[in-house]
Specification:
The complex is a heterodimer.
Chain A (H helix, E strand, L loop, with lengths): L1 H10 L5 H7 L7 H26 L7 H17 L5 H24 L4 H21 L1 H4 L5 E2 L13 H23 L2 H11 L1 H5 L5 H27 L1 E2 L6 H14 L4 H17 L7 H15 L4 H8 L11
Antiparallel strand pairs in A: 1-2
Chain B lengths: L4 E10 L2 E11 L4 E5 L6 H9 L6 E6 L2 E2 L5 H7 L1 E3 L12 H8 L8 H5 L3 H20 L15 H13 L5 E5 L7 H16 L4 E5 L3 H7 L2 E6 L2 E6 L1 H5 L2 H8 L3
Parallel strand pairs in B: 3-8, 3-9, 6-7, 7-8
Antiparallel strand pairs in B: 1-2, 1-4, 4-5, 9-10
Helix pairs in contact in B: 3-5, 3-6
Classes of the chains: A mainly alpha, B alpha/beta.
């Protein structure tokens, strides 16, 4: 038993091959595909943060676009209104997103759960969108708010290639942090709360604290993804953080596999790339997207991560069952 | 000998209904006290009131001379009073080993940031509790199931793992809510031995709700009999066996 766990953790090191291969990616891309690759990294974090709350913690909370928007606007406001370099806005966006996570967790702690939590957190997202639209002085309203790419610690952040390497480093750090958390006593407690909250408390585990922690970590990484999104698009608009965004993010979580880190990466990459193939057929994109999601979920109810598990036991999705 | 757990005048009243009414008793280290009574007697309410899951309307619960009556469940558990649940409380998606490790949560050092940054302290703590959990499973001859998801175990195995998880942190007081329900005669025997070993060798004070009479008579030092939320009798198994009030509560007035 012990040896099998030992070799398993050794074999897990092959996960580091993924970012290493990604390092070489800009050699193979053109400006258009580079732009898409950058979006993949952003959506990896968006999906991972969402998956921690709805997959691991098991709370039906849909405040993910709120965290994403809060992070994006925090970055744009700090950059445009306060004149901070983009890199300095990244931790601010993370903290702002974490605060959004704290607010969403407050609803769950007040005993609002299941469908009620779903509707309250969706309303939170819509409220934030209303806020971006109607506080023009701060957010630029419907005209959007630009993100300054000028001051940047000597990094030419206007270049998509430079952006890619910066995004890759941030994404790897946050994915590694999430893996550390999920494989620790905190990660076990998060899953324990999902499985049986009453029994979790009976083991001396402060369940409220665990719920707040999971929500705030989710808000933190999705908020940082928001800052990346702001830089990536150059200008943030309220419309980017509506229900369409939420549905796309939700689909990424499900297609990848609920509560799986590898699944979050796969879901984000797959559903960022696939719609690009049908750009040539305007009006067909949404239909195509819907069909893809339905087919994947019918064939693989546990998402793309379950496909990996069939190939190798190190991808086994032990943390989610029917 | 001072008592580990001292319950005095504990009551839970819901708008006129006396789910638990003025119950008092003491529990000493190494003692097994069974709580018996017909369905609806208030046994589980008593457990819930002691462990923080039901709010008592009156009374006091002293755990090693500390008042715990208005503490939240996780605080009471942290202070050293742990319980199991009638309908099982295992985390089905976690493995057997991970379930036991959750029982050691409060004894695992390392802050959020130690864990997040993968600091040596947190990594070593994780290895340490993994080993400890494995050793505990070995004691109950369950180590061969360590990596099985808890949801795949049989009912009897689940009960044993739940007890291993609950006692992993070595709490001085243990509340077992029908640990033998649904078990085969062999598993029931095994459960009785586990209870005796915990009280005899480890000195754990055990409060036990159980319907299986032979298990109660064999394992308990003292028995508390309840009916309709109130205590109707108290004594050793021999005394209870010949108590008229108890016979009436169970069989009706002759």
């Amino acid at each position: 038993m012990q040896t099998s766990t030992g070799t398993l953790s050794k074999r897990r090191r092959i996960f580091w091959l993924v970012p290493l291969i990604a390092l070489a990616l800009p050699l193979l891309t053109n400006p258009y595909t580079q732009f898409i690759a950058n979006a993949m990294l952003i959506y990896t974090l968006v999906t991972l943060g969402f998956s921690v709350v709805i997959g691991n913690l098991g709370q039906l909370a849909f405040a993910n676009t709120a965290f994403f928007g809060i992070g994006a606007y925090a970055s744009a406001i700090a950059s445009t209104n306060l004149g901070l370099p983009w890199l300095a806005t990244v931790p601010l966006a993370g903290l702002a997103g974490a605060f959004g996570g704290f607010l969403a967790s407050a609803a769950a702690l007040r005993g609002i759960r299941l469908y009620y939590l779903a509707i309250v957190t969706m309303a939170f997202g819509e409220l934030m969108r209303w806020f971006y639209t109607h506080t023009g002085v701060l957010t630029g309203g419907t005209d959007g708010l630009p993100v300054s790419r000028e001051r940047d610690f000597g990094l030419a952040l206007t270049s998509d290639t430079v952006q890619f390497y910066v995004f890759l480093i941030i994404t790897c750090l946050l994915v590694a942090g999430t893996v550390n958390l999920l494989r620790s006593r905190i990660g076990r407690a998060i899953i324990a709360v999902r499985e049986n909250e009453i029994a979790t408390a009976s083991l001396g585990i402060p369940t409220s604290q665990i719920i707040v922690t999971a929500f705030m970590w989710s808000g933190f990484i999705v908020g940082i993804a928001g800052a990346m999104f702001a830089l990536h698009t150059g200008r943030v608009f309220p419309e980017s953080f509506g229900l369409t965004q939420l549905i796309v993010n939700f689909a990424m979580v499900l297609v990848g596999g609920l509560g799986s880190v590898a699944g979050a990466v796969l879901g984000a990459v797959a559903l960022t790339a696939l719609p690009e193939y049908v750009r040539a057929f305007p009006g067909m994109e949404e239909i195509f997207f819907g069909v893809i999601v339905m087919v994947v979920l019918l064939v693989m109810p546990k998402g793309l991560a379950s496909l990996l598990a069939r190939v190798s036991p190190i991808f086994q999705q032990r943390y989610h069952r029917d | 000998m001072t008592s580990l757990l001292k319950v005095e005048g504990l009551s839970v009243h819901f708008s006129g209904l006396k789910a638990l009414d003025d119950v008092s008793f003491e529990l000493e280290a190494g003692q097994v006290r069974a709580v018996i009574g017909p369905n609806g007697a208030g046994k589980t309410t008593l457990f819930n009131a002691i462990s923080g899951y039901a709010r008592p309307t009156a009374g006091s619960v002293l755990l090693e001379d500390t008042e715990i009556v208005h503490c939240s469940p996780h605080l009471i558990a942290e202070k050293g009073l742990r319980r199991t649940f009638q309908n099982g409380g295992l985390f089905a998606a976690l493995t057997v080993l991970e379930n036991v490790m959750t029982g050691l949560h409060t004894q695992t050092p390392g802050t959020f940031f130690d864990v997040l940054l993968g600091r040596r302290k947190a990594v070593e703590a994780e290895i340490e509790i993994r080993e400890k959990a494995r050793d505990l499973l070995k004691l109950m001859s369950m180590d061969h199931m360590a990596d099985t998801p808890a949801g795949d175990l049989s009912g009897g195995q689940q009960r044993i793992v739940e007890i291993v998880r609950t006692v992993a942190s070595e709490p001085p007081v243990l509340l077992l809510d029908e640990p033998a329900v649904g078990l085969s005669p062999v598993a029931r025997q095994q459960m009785m031995e586990i209870i005796k070993r915990l009280s005899g060798e480890k000195g754990v004070g055990i409060l036990l709700i159980e319907h299986a009479v032979e298990l109660v008579m064999a394992a308990a030092d003292r028995i508390l009999v309840m009916a309709a939320g109130a205590r109707i009798s108290e004594g050793t198994p021999e005394e209870i066996r010949s108590d008229k009030a108890v016979l009436e509560a169970y069989l009706g007035h002759a």
